[in-house]
Amino acid sequence: MEDEFVVRDKKIQSILEQELEDGESLAADARKMVFYLLIEKKGYLPEDIEKRAVFEVKLGQETAYSSVDFLISIAGKKAMVIKCAAGSLSSRERQALAVARLIGSTPVPVAVVADPLNAEVLDVATGKVVGEGFGAIPVRDRIIQLLSEYSFTPLSPERLEKEKRILLAFDAIRCCVPQGTDGGVAIKGPAICEE
């Protein structure tokens, strides 16, 4: 007969695996909905949208890879990042801001967090929620106007380090595959992690 602690651990593991599966299913639904919205209602062109944009994050001697569900770029300028998730949007706001501040050589102006039911639009410079609901996601013409007015100023090295640590902490919550070096052996490639 199995030890009661082993049985309990197996039950807990099973519950956690089901919650992760359910969360991924909701996030996938959000991604489908947001992509449809961007193309059909917000006027973006398919070439404006990069799905599952992966980018490198260097912190000290370590190299990691992070990603965002959608990166919107117009005429070569990164304009908006969109993070799709299940559950509380407010719990993903800080992650989306860190992505927006790190994905390019300068921060992008707009970050969005979305689930299948709602969305929040964030001003990357201030970190404040500036709009709620799918209707608040800027249309393509508004993003073009915003890009013409936006001051693309790099973050200070200190701020960059803080943003990297914040992003990598969020990424570590969902995946524990180390990136960078392991005993002097370089580990390359995107983190193996689904959100």
What's the shape? globular
CATH class: Alpha Beta
Main sheet summary = 6 strands, mixed
> What is the mean predicted local confidence, pLDDT?
83
Proportion in β-strands: 25-35%
CATH architecture: Alpha-Beta Complex
Q: What quaternary form is this?
A: single chain
- The tally of beta strands, per DSSP, is 8
Radius of gyration, whole Å: 18 Å
Number of domains: 1
- Secondary-structure class: alpha+beta
Please, how many helices? 4
List the strand order in the largest sheet.
1-2-3-4-5-6
- Cα distance spanning the termini: 37 Å
Share of residues in helices: 40-55%
Provide the succession of SSEs: HEEEHEEEHHEE
CATH topology: tt1808, chain A
Question: Could you name the ranges where pLDDT drops below 50 across 5 or more consecutive residues?
Answer: 175-195
List keywords for this structure.
195 residues; alpha+beta; tt1808, chain A; six-stranded mixed beta sheet; two-stranded antiparallel ribbon; 8 strands; globular; disordered C terminus
Report on the structure:
The chain has a single domain, classed as tt1808, chain A (Alpha-Beta Complex). It is 40% helix and 27% strand. Helix 2 crosses helix 4. Strand 4 and strand 5 form a beta hairpin. It is of the alpha+beta class. It is globular. The protein contains four helices and eight strands.
